[in-house]
Write a structure and sequence with these properties.
Blueprint: E1 2-5, E2 21-24, H1 37-55, H2 66-69, E3 73-80, H3 83-86, H4 89-103, E4 106-113, H5 129-133, E5 138-141, H6 146-158, E6 163-169, H7 172-186, E7 194-202, H8 216-230, E8 235-237, H9 242-245, H10 265-279, E9 284-286, H11 294-303, H12 319-325, H13 333-344, H14 368-386, H15 389-395, H16 398-401, H17 410-427, E10 430-431, E11 435-436, E12 442-446, H18 451-461, E13 474-477, E14 497-502, E15 506-509
Parallel strand pairs: 3-4, 5-6, 6-7, 8-9, 12-13, 12-14
Antiparallel strand pairs: 1-3, 2-7, 10-11, 14-15
Helix pairs in contact: 1-8, 4-10, 6-11, 11-13
Length: about 525
């Protein structure tokens, strides 16, 4: 494989000590000989892409042209076994669309026929007796962080499912923590319920020049799909909270892929499309935690009896520093979110002293960059607590762009979001899991569907009568009340929120000048909520 870039001095040919080596300790059992050529190619392509991502530097953080210098131009020339497949227009478009969105780089791929393809090594771990005993329900991508731990705790420890934990190792220090965490989880499961599958990707002697690792998730996903294919499964599970997945920036200057897109709904859809084409069958990548916050993640771990494992997870973005001193920095974006979530869940005692090099609340912060990061998180938190629904949607347009990427149709997702806001205001609760709403009357008008569908939406949000809040301040209607004609009048408005669904579930929010969250005046109540 050859790769080159305008922004790198890396030689287009690599000496022996700089060659890329994919060393998979375990992938599956004796099915190694049946690994499809398309997947073998995908593993190599993903490995080369990952290594190139680490060896080619982006623009400096101090650059005045950071927006344009952040992007790189990289050309790959890769020999493959299935040249007929990789040169297809639909496969090429799916590959570049996925990786361009992940990295915002300009990537060009040229494929040639591999004259001497190397078969997967017999030492890949397919003869592992533990692998032969397991019949997994899930393949889980396991990073050793809080989110992936929560997924294992809920799906395996709590629900009793069996799973393969696929881990990509990149640092010896982090790898030891991942191993210890996997061992602790295995001790809480029955025999044949859990298989830990760690994999190394070695770059040779060359040191990485770029640490953003925006393309790492493609390699991670490819490893996961390899396991899924070997065990006859069609879905790979990422577990990541929705705030991170939706790529909501903590500040205006955090643009593009400077905020991670690892589990963005569009990424999961696109990687699923690529592998569906490569394998000629429908496959998927799922994130069951897309509607959860970081605090929800921490509470899930505790609720499944694994709160003591929180201290063994690593979230810090500064992997190199962690490798040297064994402590998380406490000031990067991941550390700040982690610390706030753990404290917010009332579980600060789960982290022993010395977990962070500098404690978020009590430690010294001398670096201006560290202080800026902490300040940005605090400002975003304060902004979210005071935002109206319209303000939030105007500030985070990513929410709308994600609707067509989530499970279900865009119309269904828009409707779900609208009902979530309506109930949050009517109950004085939290919209989207974390945005506090002042309580007030809500009028929810659905001009396309009947009361049964409205009731089904409420049942989806609150399964079981015992979990349902008091919806007395929510009025639902499926007909156009006479007062709708006065919807755009700002006189004597009393409702805090009006939601109108019409023309394929497009939602219209009406705000009054008085409270910026109001709507039309409601002289009388109509149908009861959920009827």
């Amino acid at each position: 494989m050859i790769f080159s870039s305008r922004s790198s001095s890396t030689s287009p040919t690599a000496p022996h000590d700089r060659q890329v080596k994919l060393d998979a300790e375990r992938i599956s059992l004796q099915l190694v000989d049946e690994l499809p050529d398309a997947l073998a190619d995908a593993l190599e392509v993903a490995t080369y892409v990952f290594v190139a991502d680490r060896l080619i530097r982006r623009g400096s953080n101090a650059s005045r042209r950071i927006g344009s210098d952040w992007q790189r131009r990289i050309r790959f020339r890769i020999p493959v076994r299935r040249l007929d497949l990789w040169t297809r227009d639909d496969v090429g478009e799916a590959l570049t669309d996925l990786l361009t969105f992940l990295s915002e780089d300009r990537l060009v791929f040229e494929f040639s026929r591999a004259t001497r393809p190397v078969a997967p090594e017999p030492s890949l771990g397919f003869r592992d007796r533990a692998a032969q005993k397991i019949r997994p329900d899930q393949v889980i991508l396991f990073s050793g962080g809080l989110d992936s731990l929560a997924g294992v705790c809920e799906a395996v420890v709590g629900a009793g499912n069996s799973a393969i934990l696929v881990t990509h190792k990149s640092s010896k220090t982090i790898a030891s923590r991942q191993d210890a965490l996997a061992e602790a989880l295995a001790s809480r499961t029955r025999s044949g319920q859990l298989l830990y599958a760690p994999l190394w990707v070695q770059r040779g002697a060359i040191k990485p020049m770029e640490h953003s690792q925006r393309l790492r998730s493609f390699l991670f996903a490819t490893l996961g799909m390899t396991y899924a294919r070997m065990f006859g499964l069609d879905t790979v599970h990422f577990y990541e909270n929705g705030i991170t997945s939706f790529n909501l920036p903590i500040a205006e200057h955090v643009v593009g892929t400077r905020a991670s897109r690892t589990t963005h709904p569009r990424v999961l859809n696109r990687v699923g499309r690529l592998f569906s084409l490569l394998l000629d069958k429908p496959v998927a990548f799922s994130n069951p935690y897309v509607w959860m916050t970081k605090r929800d993640i921490v509470e899930t771990i505790e609720a499944n009896g694994c709160g003591d494992l929180i201290a063994q997870t690593v979230s810090c973005a500064h992997v190199r520093d962690y490798s040297f001193n064994g402590t998380q920095c406490g000031s990067c974006s991941q550390c700040v979110e982690r610390r706030v979530a753990i404290v917010g869940a009332g579980l600060s005692l789960r982290e022993p002293p010395g977990t962070y090099r500098s404690d978020l609340f009590t430690g010294p912060h001398e670096s201006g960059q560290e202080l800026t990061m902490i300040e940005a998180h605090i400002q975003r938190a304060w902004s979210l607590t005071g935002m109206t629904r319209a303000d939030f949607l105007a500030s985070y347009g990513q929410s709308f762009r994600c609707l067509r990427e989530l499970d279900g149709s865009p119309e269904e997702n828009a409707s779900r979001m609208a009902m979530d806001w309506a109930i949050a205001v009517a109950c004085g609760g939290f919209a989207m899991g974390s945005i506090s709403c002042d309580q007030g009357d809500v009028l929810y008008v659905d001009l396309e569907n009947g009361h049964r569908r409205i009731k089904n939406r409420i049942n989806t949000l609150f399964p079981g009568e015992q979990n349902r809040p008091d919806l007395g301040r929510l009025e639902c209607s499926t007909s156009r009340p006479a007062r709708i004609a006065r919807c755009f009048s700002f006189k004597a408005l009393n409702d805090r929120l009006i939601v109108i669904e019409f023309l394929r579930f497009r939602c219209s929010f009406k705000a009054s000048r008085r409270n910026r969250t109001g709507g039309i005046r409601r002289p009388s109540r109509g149908a009861a909520p959920g009827q």
